[in-house]
Structure formats: structure tokens, C-alpha cells
Specification:
CATH topology of the largest domain: Nuclear Transport Factor 2, Chain: A
CATH class of the largest domain: Alpha Beta
Order of helices and strands: HEHHEHHHHEEEEH
CATH architecture of the largest domain: Roll
Distance between the termini: 160 Å
């Protein structure tokens, strides 16, 4: 029994040795004891890197920046470039705090640049326009105040000069002066103590002619009226840069010339009364 037991392991060891000798004793690839192991692919592990996502706010920033072109068409859409700038700033902060898990900083920067560009082009032009309108409005208010001072002094010649050339074509000067004289001596009106603006004056520029026009409400302080006489007034700016009255609601319609009278008047030599003038 002991001999048989001793011979079995020796026989197994001999078999393994013989197998090893047979498989590669001559230096061939079979000599590698790891040759029987499963071989791994050379690209194994390369696709296991952590995924970096594009920041959604950065994408929104560039989309808003592209849509900001609409602000050129209407000022209401100025909110788009502003939103692009804000979204871009938020996106950059989110990417910075993402510990490398988010990307898209370049996209966010493009959105910011687009937003700032449209804000500067459209918003800057709007600010300049508002400043210009504010200056024009101030000149109109000064015209109204000077108009009241001329009326209170009874200087109707100066009042006549505060009206536009187009108004002068529609009204004869003598009719204008007579009307003001009758109004200020009327028991219903009396002397004009002053004229002021309500502070609300709209100013517009004709895109075709480039002429500025204005409209607003004036308050006429009359000597014999317990309340101010509230009237709508129209203004225009002459080629010399001076604001003048175009008309005052309800004051001068009674002395407006008819189209036929205006045509006859324009055909007469300057300084002579029109034919049929009363």
C-alpha cells in the first residue's frame, strides 16, 4: 500500500513534467506558462473615462444670442440679448463649479458676446434716441412757456412768429391778430395770464422726411375762467432747428382758409391781398 501511494504522486509529477517538455521545450510560444490565459483587447479600458456633459444653460445662452437678432426688428425683443448675457454668466459659473463634469464654456462666451453686441447696437441706439427726445421735449415746453408770455403781454406779432410756415399758408396774418384780440377782450376768456404744458409731450421723427413732430396738451390760464383751458397742440421742427406750433385745438379753425382760397392766395404776388379776401 505504501509503495503504491508513493508512486502515484511521483507519476503525476512526471506526467506534468513530460507535458511541459512536450509543449515547449524547444523555445516556441508554447513555453509561456500564461499562454493558456484569456487575452485582453488592446482597447480595453479606453471607453471607461467619465462622461463630460455640455451645460444646458450654455446651450440656452447661445440660442438666445442668435435669437437676439429679433431685437433689431422690434425693441420689445431687447429682453433676448439681455437673457443671453445672464444665461452665459450663469453657465460659466455652473461649469466652474462642476468639478470637470460639465463643459461648454466657449458656447456660453459666444452667447454673451452675441447678447452684448445686440444690446450695444440696439439698446445703445435707443438710449441715444431717448436722450434726443428728452432734449426736443424740453425745447417744446420752452416754446409753450414763451407762447404764454407773449400772449400775456399782448405781443401778438411774436405769437404769430411762433407758428409754422404751413400754418401761415392756411391763415391770414390779419385774421390771426384780430382773432387773438377778440379772444383776449372777450368776457368769456379775458386776458391770458400764462400757458404751460402738462408735461406729457410725444415727439416723433418722420422716417421719410426726417422732420420732427410733437403733440401734447397745454393749459391756458385765462383771466375770466375759473379753470385752465385744456387744449391739444401740435408742433413741428423747422429746417433751422426751431420748434413752432402747427395748430392748437379749437382756436383757429374758424379762420382757416379753404383749399380754393389757399390756391388763390398762392397765385397772388407776395404782399397783395388774395382775390375775394374778406
Amino acid at each position: 500500500m505504501s509503495e503504491g501511494t508513493t508512486d502515484r504522486p511521483q507519476g503525476q509529477a512526471g506526467a506534468l513534467a513530460a507535458s511541459g517538455a512536450a509543449s515547449g521545450g524547444n523555445g516556441q510560444p508554447g513555453d509561456d506558462p500564461l499562454a493558456s490565459l484569456h487575452k485582453m483587447s488592446r482597447t480595453a479600458g479606453l471607453g471607461s473615462a467619465e462622461y463630460v456633459a455640455i451645460n444646458a444653460t450654455a446651450v440656452a445662452a447661445i440660442i438666445l444670442g442668435l435669437l437676439s437678432f429679433g431685437a433689431v426688428l422690434t425693441e420689445v425683443l431687447l429682453v433676448l440679448p439681455l437673457a443671453a448675457v445672464v444665461s452665459g454668466i450663469i453657465a460659466i459659473r455652473q461649469i466652474r463649479n462642476s468639478a470637470g463634469t460639465q463643459t461648454g464654456r466657449g458656447i456660453a462666451l459666444i452667447g454673451i458676446v452675441l447678447g452684448l453686441g445686440f444690446l450695444g447696437a440696439v439698446g445703445g441706439g435707443k438710449l441715444l434716441h431717448l436722450r434726443e427726445v428728452r432734449q426736443e421735449r424740453g425745447q417744446i415746453i420752452s416754446l409753450i412757456e414763451q407762447f404764454g408770455q407773449n400772449l400775456s403781454r399782448g405781443d401778438f406779432e411774436a405769437v404769430w412768429e411762433q407758428f409754422s410756415p404751413r400754418f401761415h399758408q392756411r391763415v391770414r396774418k390779419e385774421d390771426f391778430l384780430n382773432l387773438l384780440s377778440r379772444m383776449t377782450s372777450s368776457p368769456y376768456y379775458g386776458k391770458v395770464l400764462g400757458v404751460r404744458s402738462t408735461g406729457i409731450v410725444d415727439v416723433e421723427r418722420d422716417p421719410q422726411t426726417g422732420v420732427y413732430y410733437g403733440r401734447g396738451m397745454i393749459l391756458v390760464d385765462l383771466e375770466k375762467s375759473p379753470e385752465d383751458d385744456r387744449r391739444a397742440a401740435l408742433f413741428s421742427k423747422t429746417s433751422q432747428g426751431q420748434w413752432v406750433f402747427e395748430d392748437i385745438e379749437g382756436y383757429f379753425q374758424s379762420i382757416f382758409l379753404t383749399p380754393q382760397q389757399m390756391q388763390q392766395r398762392s397765385a397772388q404776388p407776395q404782399g397783395l391781398p388774395a382775390a375775394g379776401a374778406q
